[in-house]
Amino acid sequence: MRILDNYISKSIVQIFLSTILIFCFLYILIDLATHLEDFISNKVPAQVIAGYYASFFPVIFVQTAPIACLLATLFTYSTLNNNNEIIALRASGLNFWKITRPAIIFGLMAAALVFLINEKFVPQSLSMSQEIRQDQIELASDKNKSAAQPIKYLFFYGLNNRLFFIDQYQPSTKTLEGITIIGQDELQRMTEKIVAEKGDWTGQNWKFTNCQISRYDPVDQSSTGEVQFYKEKTLDIRENPADLLKQRNSVSTMNIRELRSYIKRFKGSGAVAALNGLKVDLHQKIAYPFACIVIIFAGLPFALTTGRRKGLTFASVGIALVIGFLFYVVNAIGLALGKGGVLPPILAAWFAPIFFMAAGIYSAKKLF
Known about the structure:
Elements (H helix, E strand, L loop, with lengths): L1 H40 L4 H9 L2 H26 L2 H7 L4 H25 L1 H16 L2 H8 L3 E8 L3 E9 L4 E10 L5 E12 L4 E11 L6 E13 L5 H7 L8 H10 L6 H16 L3 H14 L7 H28 L5 H20 L4
Antiparallel strand pairs: 1-2, 2-3, 3-4, 4-5, 5-6
């Protein structure tokens, strides 16, 4: 069994690494072709371009690892099947689990590796690529164009122990929409809550529309009964529009610990929809690496079917692409349902893995 496991594992690992390299090459080639004119017109040095694309390697690996696992597994087992080796293994008394053990172990190891890279390297990789693009690649006109795009779900920890959550910020008009501000004392206990429909930058301060201010007892966190409503209210908030852009945080540049801490900070903000979306992103960071093993389970039955084997090796590529496409579609649907409040955050993140694991086990029943 050890010889068989080594034989299958070696093939899977070789194809997996080759597939990852091909995906990296294709990504760089396509992106370079798309932005080549910008690089030339902006006179970007070659070493900057090289550093920019090198910073994307962890991101590309994490995004393509599941489909690479599936391709490597299907191609390996389809080749065995096409050469009648699966029939020989069956005839020697090996069941489904013993034959597929190398693929399952590889899938678990790949999932652990994806989790590690996604936690340790992807946040820094994204931050680095954004910094290189903003500081060394984009022209001032490009930066202004990028800055003019509306920003959704802007949240940060500001001055005077205040937590800010803004549904949308429009940089071109310096306008805030859906504002929630939580004031805290030195022990991070809530002392006030400011909710406003809209906020406009006057040039020196922020003027809020339909603003409600509630005071809280910091000890028992109960309302003191002091609730004030203003049609228009100018508040002493020192953060200007430039500060908002500097202090914004992106979920993609946070690891699980940082995101969990961030959610905890905004737990009492009352921004239910935004917090729900953050919780979905948190559970997605945990669930996504398991796609490596789940997607293997979904594809193995196709490679081990010993009926028609002609052309199965090359057909496995098409099967892998279809399964991978369906996985990403179902995963996107699950996340959308979670952020829309239809599904609980944890179920939304695990929706695609559970669905494909169940489908794979059901399809493989006849092979057990």
